[in-house]
Amino acid sequence: MNIFLIERNLIVLKKVIAVSLLLFSTFSVFSQQTLIKGSVKELISYQPIENATITIEETNQQTQTNALGEFEFSVNVPLGEQVLRISKVGYIRKRYPIIVYENEIVNISDMTLETDNSLSQELFTISLSDDELDDDTSGLDNMSGLLQSSPDIFQRTVAFEFSTSFFKLRGLDSDQGSVMINGIEMNKIYNGRPQWSNWGGLNDVMRHQEFSIGLTPSKYNFGGLLGSININTRASLMRSGKRVTYSSSNRSYTSRLLATYSSGLLKNGWAYTLSLGRRWGNEGYQDATLYNSNSIFASVEKVINEKHSLSFTGIYAPNRRGKSSPNTQEVYDLKGIKYNEYWGWQMGEKRNSRIKEVKEPIIMLNHYWAINSKTKLNTNIGYQFGTLGNSRLAYGGANRIVNTDGTIVFESGGRNPSPTYYQKLPSYFERNFPNDLEFAYGAQQEFLNNGQINWEQMYDTNLINTSQGRNSAYMLYEDRVDDKQLTVNTVLSGELSEHILLNVSINYKKLESENYAQVLDLLGGSGFLNVDSFDGVQFNLNNPNAILDAGDIYSYNYNMLASIFSGFAKAQVTYNALDFFVSGSITSTQYQREGLFQYETFQNNSFGKGETLSFTGLGVKAGSTYKITGKHIVDINAGYVIKAPSIRNSYSNSRANHNIVPNISEEKIMSLDASYIFRSSILKAKLTGFYTKLKDANDISFFFADGIGHVIAESGTQQSGNDDNEFIQEILQGISKNHIGAELGVEAQVTSTIKLKGVTALGQYTYANNPDLYLSSDRFENVYLGTSKLKGYKLAVGPHRAYSIGFEYRDPKYWWFGTTINFFDKTYADISPLTRTDNFFTDVDGLPFIDYDEEVAKALLKQETFDDYMLVNLVGGKSWRVNKYYIGFFASINNVLDEVFKTGGFEQGRNANYRQLRDDQALNRPVFGSKYWYGRGATYFLNVYVNF
């Protein structure tokens, strides 16, 4: 009996052991399995989101969340650096980078999606107008386009609230930031700035953006002081479905229509997206600022297999818009802040003489190769071509007269058609006829009653000239730039170890740019003589005295050739508590001018190819992020950059000759920033301090100057006893600037529906030295005037101080509204460097003015500071779901209180010496007072969209 029990117990024990071994083996296999799992919840309610789609990018793997919002990948899980894409209709899609290690579990719990009830991010983006992003007249370009989708509250506020004040982040121009599409840099070689209108109106397909702000690292390129953004237009990343949007506004355009269709990634590995848009309006906020823009976007991608994907993108966004003028205070006082001098009535319609037209298609081919689980290679080819034109009136139409003694003179019959030409304004008559104020009164009444370009008068003059066998006195022409640019680059991303990531890039750019003026409209005349009527100089000795017709090239014609070869490498090390990176770059830049006209004044220095300019750029930057706890983070970055000057700042007068800026060299930049970051479930805050020093920069300005008689005399080109004025190129060389300041952004989710936010930007941006100043013109070249006493003057970069406070309410029933109050201070007028040279106190004979008063001069040269101002903005919207349709409405009102404020301005350099400036400023209405830009009054933006 005992033996039987013993045997039975042994059998049971064997079974228990067998089952235990099986369970242990199963557990061991499971524990060694590679898994990705997690959960997705709604941002505000924190409730699980069911049926959200989770995709491992660059693979065909996809799954959906269950009723608890959970998901899991367990089969053929790719290793290394991956990106999870989480999406669901009605929510804003998100991307989460992860690193997958073999036989380990990646657990990402409680990822959040934000309800797409307002689409506020995109709609705010739409409300940013091209003239706020691309103002080539004022130079007050900003980085709103770079920051519009940033997750950082400070950056978003800069984009959405500060953009209308032309606030410049850290006092820097947009050439200090890098904008890329699919890894291809879009900044123009000519001036280093992105041309935002090249892809304007395509917001639906430009939403997938990767940021690096400031000196933080990017995996695509070295970046700039303002960071970089890469816009990814791969069709496989686009949310599948259709979308139609209509917008109405009184800012730049009056109407906007956009339609987009995206297939998503199909089972056969193909994906495609098509987007069509149109923006139009006869007049924006300023008078006669017409707007006409069409946009088309196409992206096709083929996911060949798990390793290879090929993508094609085509973008064409031709746009045509009327410009608005800066004006003196005298003009604004008479006509108001909407006044624009560039237009006049013609046959009952407003015709603007200053039209900017851009037609520059972009095509690119991108190859994505997952070499293995830890290494990826992205190779890109981009080609951009087309035209950019800016029209304006010419009024110096001349006639060639042969006298009886055989001498030749050029007789000009045109008069400046600008209604704000100084000899037409009341101030001119008040100064020159102080005892006969009826002249000033008559000029004032004429300006008030008319005050616009008189197109009919110009046509009549030209028609009379034609009947007498004479050339046109007036015509409309366009400054044209025809670019052809090829970009090729490759970006290698690899995981060297569990903690080390490496990015390496090689980039090549080649530009062929033809620059010329083209006759657009002879305004009823029969021809226009290609001669400078002011001094009878031939623009082209290869074809002298040419009579031009519409379509012919006028005044100047040259090619600018450029090539840039660069390399970039970045190593990034990540640990639980500490991250740091080191990044370096090297760049070789070459420019060459090729003249197609032989300018008479520079016969030996204008035609054919000039010398090749070569520059070598170097860059290094490093940074560290220390995570003290989960809530407290410290981030420090530093960089030193040597960069080539742009084409614009390399040639002193490229339209006339090969001359380069004297003593030209690479620009040197040193920058440092440090941030403290606090994050909790309720409060997010970031405090940053920064310091940047720029050295050896160049800047070239173009204007008409009086009071430079001794300069003309020294140049040996004086033509008359009263030869005291000239259209000049003012060249500042060796500029140093200091940028120092602090930034604070705070947002608090005080309840599930109410969010408070506040932002402060404090800066001090100044000239740090007295740079050299040279003058050039069509008669003389690079005349040295000594140093310009600029040290300590403030840079005209918009408000140096800006503050914002606001709140936002989001109701669970999908409606929301918010308001912000913004305050701006310390905005300065741009000073004239010429009036800060020795020329200021030097008479025509080269000696100091005998009536020079130092105290009076000090007051005259004091920099103007604009009044501070406050802007209140309102925003709100609602969305509905009707069957399978998502319908949304959004509205915003900027400057609700209709505040009148100056966003910028500049001293006119026309009064170049003490005596002229003193006498002019003594008037109640100076003849050559500073010119200003005023911000818009109350404006609105409305938007309705349907997703299906």
Number of helices: 12
Number of strands: 50
**Gyration radius, in Å:** 32 Å
Q: How much of the polypeptide forms β-strand, as a percent range?
A: over 45%
Q: What's the end-to-end separation, in Å?
A: 79 Å
Structural class: mainly beta
Q: What does the average pLDDT come to?
A: 88
- The global form is globular
Work out the helicity level.
10-25%
The residue ranges in which pLDDT falls below 50 over 5 or more consecutive positions are 1-6, 12-31, 117-129, 136-143
Largest beta-sheet characterization: 27 strands, antiparallel
Describe what you observe in this structure.
The protein is mostly beta strands. Helices cover 12% and strands 47% of the residues. It contains twelve helices and 50 strands. The strands form nine sheets. The protein has a 27-stranded antiparallel sheet that branches. The chain has a four-stranded mixed sheet with strand order 4-1-8-6, with no helix packed on it. The longest helix is centred in the N-terminal third of the chain and has 30 residues, at 2-31. The protein is globular. The N and C termini lie far apart (79 Å). The relative contact order is 0.10.
